[in-house]
């Protein structure tokens, strides 16, 4: 498991490109037949990916890192399939997972296993996990069951639909909030005008991009902005003091996960365009 430590904003001002990528960018999430995990000290987020090809892949982590015998002993998780058809088996119950289906798995579950229906078109399970102190039931939701919100316009190149899966009005959780944003063709911008939310951190996972496509992800304090070049199926850790916005060379999709002091989606501090530097 890769370990990422929290960084103070004053320190981040001095980072060069290599250091910025080293601290905040998760470049590899999907490796055939392996569970790939990154542990961030920012709100104790675990970000991961599993691509079962030749056989099932089990959700497990080094007990020394998480201080527990099983992965979900003191955690909860949200999992979204961004690949072909697959299944997630949770303590013996099998959940069929189509592309863009989401599964919430609650505190106390002992065994989670990922599998693909077709090794030639394997499932790709993207995972966010955070600490939990209350148990909620395992629940699956297709994108058609998620709460949609249409935002932006083609005039501003940011026409998009936000789908909320795990939130106070949908799948219940202890602290994890998770959803997906789809940009319509011809649109490249997300979350601009931008904002911060000092009470919650966030992780962005960009996908559905061509091989030569990139997103310029903007981060940093509003008056000390930086950028990361992000490619298909890569993720960015966004600490609570940072903006999180991006523009792509084409339209794309991204999954967002949040954790922190509350689960209020609208709890954010807007940043006026004139205040950006």
Which helices and strands appear, and what pairs or packs with what?
Layout: E1 2-4, H1 9-12, H2 17-24, E2 25-26, E3 35-40, E4 46-50, E5 57-58, H3 63-66, E6 75-81, E7 86-90, E8 93-97, E9 102-105, E10 112-116, E11 125-131, E12 139-141, E13 147-151, E14 160-166, E15 177-183, E16 189-190, E17 195-196, E18 200-207, E19 215-221, E20 224-230, E21 234-238, E22 245-248, E23 253-260, E24 269-270
Parallel strand pairs: 1-3
Antiparallel strand pairs: 2-21, 3-4, 4-11, 5-10, 6-9, 6-11, 7-8, 7-10, 9-12, 13-14, 14-15, 15-23, 16-22, 17-24, 18-21, 18-23, 19-20, 19-22
Describe the structure.
The protein is 6% helix and 43% strand. By secondary structure, it is mainly beta. The chain has one domain (16-275): Sandwich (Jelly Rolls), CATH 2.60.120. The strands form five sheets. It has a seven-stranded mixed sheet with strand order 1-3-4-11-6-9-12, with no helix packed on it. Strands 2-21-18-23-15-14-13 form a seven-stranded antiparallel sheet. The chain has a four-stranded antiparallel sheet with strand order 5-10-7-8, with no helix packed on it. A hairpin with a 2-residue loop joins β19 and β20 (224-230). The longest helix is centred in the first third of the chain and has 8 residues, at 17-24. The protein is globular and about 55 Å long.
